[in-house]
């Protein structure tokens, strides 16, 4: 195979592509793969908050509470969406729930809901202790409650791509890219 085939297909983004969905849906992993595939920068709103605060998200939740965290999250999303260079942006699971964030994303980007069923999500997050919202006596029941509450809000996203357990990260990135190509306003391909 020629070395040329390993280079990403450089796309010109007209809007920032914002990945939304539940914890464990693959927003960060798929976002990184998609960014590499199309030659765009990848940003993660949670990572930006952690860097700015110089503490982990669980530490922020513990010290300052969820409302403080959500306010910082909106500030970061606004800043990243207003950047001159458009990117692939992964957001935290709760980011899209705030009406202000949905409006910002709608005005300045395009939202892509990575939909995954509860069993798939649990298989990905059930063994981790890095999810502050799941630090409860029954984390599976908590995840189910969060899932039920958030699913109707995530359904408001501009684009929906459904994950399957057998999809690799690369396959999911391909599914997202195919869905994005259905819209004329998001990006221009090298062959356009």
Radius of gyration: 17 Å
SSE arrangement, N to C: EEHEHHHEHEHHEHE
Taken as a percent bin, the fraction of beta residues is 5-15%
Give the overall shape. globular
Q: Can you give the mean pLDDT?
A: 90
Secondary-structure-derived class:
alpha/beta
Q: Uncertain runs with pLDDT below 50, 5 residues or more?
A: 1-7
Strand order of the largest sheet: 3-4-2-5-6
- N-to-C span: 25 Å
What does this structure look like?
- The protein is of the alpha/beta class and 192 residues long.
- Helices cover 48% and strands 14% of the residues.
- It contains 8 helices and 7 strands; from the N terminus they run ββαβαααβαβααβαβ.
- The protein has helices at residues 27-38, 45-53, 57-64, 66-81, 99-108, 118-125, 139-154, 169-181, and strands spanning 12-13, 16-20, 42-44, 88-90, 109-115, 159-162, 187-188.
- The protein has a 5-stranded parallel beta sheet, sandwiched between helices.
- The longest helix has 16 residues, at 66-81.
- The chain is globular and about 55 Å long.
- The two termini are 25 Å apart.
- The model is unreliable at 1-7 (pLDDT under 50).
What is shown here, in short?
The protein is of the alpha/beta class.
Chain-wise SSE layout:
Layout: E1 12-13, E2 16-20, H1 27-38, E3 42-44, H2 45-53, H3 57-64, H4 66-81, E4 88-90, H5 99-108, E5 109-115, H6 118-125, H7 139-154, E6 159-162, H8 169-181, E7 187-188
Parallel strand pairs: 2-4, 2-5, 3-4, 5-6
Antiparallel strand pairs: 1-7
Helix pairs in contact: 1-8, 2-4, 3-4, 4-5
